[in-house]
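Kindly inspect the following:
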Amino acid sequence: NKMLLYLSSITAFSFIISGVVTLIYDAFFFVVFGYTWLAIVAVVLIDGLTATVCRLLPKKFANHEKKIFQVSAKEKKFYEKLKIRKWKDSVPEIGQFTGFRKNKLENPQSVEYVERFLLEVCYGEIGHFVSLFSGFLIVLLFFIAEYFWLIALCVAFINALMNLPSFCILRYNSYKLEILRKSNLKKQARLSA
C-alpha cells in the first residue's frame, strides 16, 4: 500500500530527526520526538491549507495553455532519465480530496475529460510547487523550544523533498496529456468535417 509506505517513511524520518537533535542538544528523546511530530502535523496542515488556497484560484490561473505549464521535450527527457515511469505509481495520489483522481485516465477519448484532467494537473503543479517553500513557515514556531528551529528546518526540507516527486510526475504526465488532447481535437475535427 502506497499510503502505508508514505507513513512509514514519515515515521522513520521522525525517529532520525529526533535522534540527531537529541544528540546535538543533549535533550530528552521523547520530548524531541513530540516536537518533531508537532512539526510534522504543522507542515501537513500548511500543505493542506496551501493546496486548498491554490485549488480556490480561478481557473485562468491553472490554464494548461499558459507558458508556465508547458513542458518541453527536453524537460520530458529529463524526467525519463530519472526513470520516472518506474517509480511514479508508487507515489500516493490524493485526488480524491479534490473529487478528481489523477492516477488513471478514465475517458481518454473525450476532449472535455482530458482538458479537465489538464486543469487538475495544473492545480496540482501549483499546489506542490508552492508547498516546496510554504512548509518552511513552521520555522516561525522556533519559540517552542531552543532546538525547535532545527527540527522545523529538517521537517520542512523533507516535506519539500516529498512534494518534489509529485510535482515532477504532474509535469511529466501533462506532456503526454497535451499530445492526447491535440490528437483528440484532430479526430473531433475530422468527424465533424
User: Anything to note?
Assistant: The chain has a mean pLDDT of 91. The longest helix spans residues 148-192. The chain has six helices and no strands. The CA atoms of residues 62 and 119 lie 6 Å apart.
